[in-house]
Amino acid sequence: MKLSVGNTMPDFAVSMICKGDISMKELVGGTPTAVYFLRYAGCTLCQLDMITIHEEYSKLLEAGAKALVVIQSPAEKLKDADFAYDIICDPSMALYKELEIAAAPSVEVLIGGSTMEKIERSKARGFVHGEYEGEELQLPAVFIVDKDLKVIYSRYAKDLSDIPDMDEVCNVIRQNA
Questions:
Q1: Which residue ranges make up each domain of the chain?
Q2: Which of 90, 146, 147, 162 has its CA 20 to 30 A from that of 170?
Q3: Domain named Thioredoxin: which ranges (predicted)?
Q4: Residue 155 phi/psi, 5° resolution?
Q5: What gap in Å lies between CA 3 and CA 156, rounded to an integer?
Q6: Mind listing the pLDDT tens digit of every residue in the chain (177 residues)?
């Protein structure tokens, strides 16, 4: 089911790196939450997104919210990761399938928009591509849910650069507080 504003995010049972199996409702814990669906840990653009969310996490906290990141990498790849947010590992891509987060039909679509500029930012930060652990053509998606898992923002990306920046995420949260 594609998520739209006003829908309720399913209360998935998810597997956490350090917390074991837990429900989305428990993870959200009554706090507005930005849920980022990215590709996998070896992807340099995902590395850039993950570190950017981490570096700007204080903005989310100031807005009274938090973040979750869902990636297609297995948990053992991230067991030593130290991010300000929780990471949900979904190597079977079950959550992506349930929420109909599609892969791009081609590389050309995947790298559309301002993806080439994002690639340059990733290179400038020194990110190096790791293992291919997921769907190479996977498009990202971002949902913001309120304390009760009601979707207050939904974006199914058109390309790898099509995710909201932290200021946009925080504005949505503040407008829906």
A1: 13-175
A2: 90
A3: 3-177
A4: -135, 115
A5: 9
A6: 999 999 999 999 887 766 678 899 999 999 999 999 999 999 999 999 999 999 999 999 999 999 999 999 988 888 788 899 999 999 999 999 999 999 999 999 999 999 999 999 999 999 999 999 999 999 999 999 999 999 999 999 999 999 999 999 999 999 997
